Structure formats: C-alpha cells, structure tokens
Amino acid sequence: MKSRRIDEDAMVKVAKRLKEVRESKGLSQGTVYIDTDYNIGRLEVGKTNISISTLSILCKYYGISFEEFFKGL
C-alpha cells in the first residue's frame, strides 16, 4: 500500500484553526492579505498545504505562539 503524502484531516483542522484565530482578532481575509501578502482564503478552506514558515509568519501577525495555535487541535 502506497503511503499518502498529504494528511487531509490535518489540513482541515489547521484551516479551521486559522479561521478561528483570524476571526477572534476581528480581522477580515482582505485585511490579512493587505498586511501580510498572503491569500489566506485558500488556506482557510484546507485545500492548500500551509508551510511551517507561512504558519510562523501568520502566528506572529496574530500575536500568538505555535503552542497557542496548536492548543486543542
């Protein structure tokens, strides 16, 4: 059996968490795009695999640590 290189379940969980964090900060996708130059709409639906580097930049932008981001996932 060939192993899968993409964990869709994990991508969906991270996507939902990204959206939760953004909304908790009262930010729109447009505002995040203007401020960071990242189109997070694609990330928030779980169809695009986010890199650790991008996640790090977004966590810093949102003012949270990796630990806070992954808490509860």
- Count of runs of 4 or more consecutive helical residues: 5
- Please summarize the sheet with the most strands: none
Sequence of secondary-structure elements: HHHHH
Shape: globular
In percent, how much strand structure appears in the residues? under 5%
Structural class: mainly alpha
- Report mean pLDDT, rounded to a whole number: 92
User: What's the helical proportion of residues?
Assistant: 55-70%
Structure summary, number of beta strands: 0
Uncertain spans, ≥5 residues at pLDDT below 50? none
Rg: 13 Å
N-end to C-end Cα span = 28 Å
What is this structure's SSE topology?
Blueprint lengths: L7 H17 L4 H8 L3 H5 L7 H11 L3 H5 L3
Would you kindly provide a written description of the structure presented here, covering whatever features stand out?
11% of the residues are buried. The chain contains five helices and no strands. It has helices spanning 8-24, 29-36, 40-44, 52-62, 66-70.
